[in-house]
Predict the structure.
Amino acid sequence: TVALTASAVGAPPLTYQWYRNNLSISGQTRSQLVLTNVTSAANGTYIVRVANSAGAATASFRFAGNSPMVL
């Protein structure tokens, strides 16, 4: 199991959306993305977009094997 967590500060409400290889991951709208039963099929670039009424910010994670890295 791998957990990717985004931490953001801003005026509420903050909304989250996770993407894998630039495609939205359906239903993944919380600050943490949990990947279970991880295999090489999970490899890729994960992006989280955090937004509120003031704008949006993104962060990227590259996952390859057992070690996610912040980009």
Q: What stands out?
A: DSSP finds no helices and seven strands in the chain. The chain has a mean pLDDT of 90. Residues 41 and 65 are 9 Å apart (CA to CA).
